Hints:
Keywords: Membrane, Transmembrane, Transmembrane helix. The chain crosses the membrane at residues 28-53, 65-84. The structure is a single chain. The protein contains five helices and no strands. It is an all-alpha fold. The protein has one domain. The longest helix has 20 residues, at 65-84. The protein is flat and about 45 Å long. The model is unreliable at 88-92 (pLDDT under 50).
Amino acid sequence: MLVSALGIWLAASVPDLAKYHLDFSIxxxxxxxxxxxxxxxxxxxxxxxxxxxxxALSLAQVEGAIVMAGIAGMxxxxxxxxxxxxxxxxxx
Length: 92
């Protein structure tokens, strides 16, 4: 109940919320899904890569910007995970 009240309060603080229609709620929904999943550096790197690349490609009006940014973010997360992974002999 407290979280719902907080959500109502935050929504009321957004100026001219009606002009955003569903765009704003879709973004808020994705934030609530993605943020709890960020538990390590590689995931954070992938999310940030996707976020920045999708914004840049959308501003450049590239078709398929979201899909390209998502794929690039996943690839970047794998690369970061690979670079930060300690070999088994070092872990012992």
